Amino acid sequence: MNQNQLETLTHHAMLVVWGQFAQSIGLIEKIQAVSLHQKTVEHRPQTKVVEFLVAILGGLEHLQDLSRSAHPLDQDQAVAKAWQQPGWADYSGVSRTLSGLTQAEAEQIVADLEQTTGPILAEEVMRALQSSGRLTYDGDLTDRPVSNTSTTYPGVAYGHMGDGLQLGYQAAMVSLHSPTYGRLWLSVAPHPGDTVSCTQAEALIRAAEAKTGLRPWRRTDLLRERIRAREAEAQTCQAKAQLSQAALERAQARLAETRQQCSEQRALVLQLETHYQECQRPERPYSALTKARQRWTMLERRRKRLEKQLPVLEKQLHRRQQRWLSHQTAVRSLQQRLEQFEQENRTNPCPIQADFRLDAGFGTRDNVALIIEMGYELYTKPYSDWLTPRLKKRVNPQTRWTQVGGNAELVAWKAERFVDFPYPLDVGLERFQTGQTQRHGTLIHFGRDPVTTNLPGWFQRYNARQLIEAGIKEGKNVFTMHHLKVRSAPALFLQEHLAAFAANFVRWAARWLSEQCLQLPAGWQNSAQPQVKAQVKVGAHTSAWIDWQDQGCLLMFTDHSLFAGRSLALKKQWVVQLPLPFSENAHF
User: Fold this and answer.
1) DSSP, residue by residue, 415-449
2) Where are the alpha helices (DSSP H) in 515-559?
3) Alpha carbons 316 and 337: distance in angstroms, whole number
4) Is residue 278 packed enough to be buried (19+ CB in 10 Å), middle (13-18) or exposed (0-12)?
């Protein structure tokens, strides 16, 4: 076939490919069917939403790059045709449409995307359970800084971003370890920039469960034991508060009595002084006046002592009452959690095993206990100096360390109890060298895995959460989330979700391509590591000729392309294996 027979030239080859894939899974139809309140002038608002997704898939840093790049995407009719659009709007029109979206409309677009790709996720969840018997989640919080002088971003706040304080947002993200795709994003939730990790642990877990529709069996037995222990502590605090209340009441009564006695004794001294003066009687060391004056002095000292003692007793009572109130509040909260978990267990006919890996920012005592009670195998690190200093005191020159990495050693303790934590934890103290400085950290684990018998495996399993860190880096640098292309809250919400969706989408498309195209560039065939950066930053900006066919198209890279000589024959169909109650093929 020569170039004269080919119909269309594109400068965005992979965007044509991904448009064909989007057709094969019914994605475009879903977006086109979303009801948007904005009117159509030249281009439908739904078309501009599709264009926004295509811009993110193309890794465009700024919205204006749609119209002002070397090869403007809005002039590429081949990409428009692949995405079933009559044409593309200028970037200014896309910007106006995004600015005019309501939050409900943005959420509906995201819901339709998730509904369309739900079978793909369900298939992968089933595959993960079949291959390893469990699901593995990773959660993290990542920054979205904006200019400190900006006044047009809604809901921003100063928070820790990068190496210092910066104005911007935070995004709470959850990923699923996938045997086919390596990593799949499950959830992303935007927050103000001052949001901190330790406030988001439960929300991340709930988001993951909502997306997969699966959850482990809640550990209500442990929670009941914790409630009983907390109730006993509350009773002890109540008894101490009652003792303090009684001591305070006794001191108050004694002070009132002493004040009365002081008043009476003072009157007696004044009376005796008057009598002695009238009788011109001298005051002797053992006279009635001297004894009355001594008793008055003694009573005054007692009064002052009781007046000083009273605030101390009041503070002690307040402290003990607050501690008692804190225990009561905690018990009520735990009882509400128990009722919720019991209800969740009653409505969970198919509990699963699942791991959750989180960094130290999430590892507060409350969060660790909560995740344990929610039924997860937990891999994390402690927040701040909760555990590390006390573990360092346990080691000595005779302690045997195990090499777990090129620059890391580990010593561990199994099922350790701590006075300030309700459950036994597997803990490992790690040490590593940074220049001339020796640093320490702590690993925390709770669950069935015998981590203390395989310290290198424990170290590697926790640090495998670098998968989500790599995903966050990919989102910033490949799908350009380090540049926020929009400035309204609904549009920012939509951009966050579209960027996460795009990362999944490229991996799904890589599998789709590998099943039908033999001439894929090296490395693109592996859907778990499909060289996303190369596909987006190079493949989506390279030229190719397109021959449109009834069931797809033939794409041939031009002689000026990095992939010259390769051609891709694309068919708009894909088969997904559906999960229980029984397996069947779904043709999109």
Assistant:
1) EE--TT-SS-EEEEEEEEEETTEEEEEEEEEESSS
2) 532-533
3) 31
4) exposed
Q: What is the dihedral of CA 380, 384, 388, 389, to 10 degrees?
A: -170
| 3-class secondary-structure state, position 10 | strand
Query: How far, in Å, CA of 502 to CA of 510, rounded?
Result: 12
Q: How many CB atoms lie within 10 A of CB 463?
A: 16
Q: Which residues contact 82 (CB under 8 A, 6 or more apart)?
A: 15, 16, 17, 18, 19, 20, 23, 546, 553
Helix (H) or strand (E) holding 77: helix 77-82
59 vs 540: CA distance, rounded Å: 8
Give 350-372 as a 3 state SS string. CCCCEEEECCHHHCCHHHHHHHH
Residue 107's CB is within 10 A of a number of other CB atoms, namely 15
Helix or strand or coil: residue 587?
strand
How does pLDDT run across 452-502, given as a tens digit for each residue? 999 999 999 999 999 999 999 999 999 999 989 999 999 999 999 999 999
Tokens 């999960």 label which residue? 579
Question: What per-residue string of b and e applies to 480-497 under the rule 16 or more CB within 10 Å gives b?
Answer: bbeebbbebbbbbbbbbb
pLDDT of residue 584: 38
Alpha helices in 399-530 (DSSP H): 455-463, 466-477, 489-514
Give the angle subtended at the CA of 142 by the CAs of 136 and 148, to the nearest 5°.
175
H helix or E strand, kind and range, residue 120: helix 103-132
The residue type of 492 is L
Tell me, rounded to whole angstroms, the distance of Cα 344 from its chain centroid. Answer: 22
pTM for this prediction: 0.89
Q: What is the pLDDT of residues 18-47, one digit of tens each?
A: 999 999 999 999 999 999 999 998 999 999
Please enumerate in sequence order all residues whose Cβ is within 8 A of that of 279, keeping only pairs 6 or more positions apart, or say none.
Answer: none
**How far, in Å, CA of 535 to CA of 537, rounded?**
6
Which residues, other chains included, contact 145 with Cβ-Cβ below 8 Å and sequence gap of 6+? 161, 162, 166, 167, 168, 193, 482
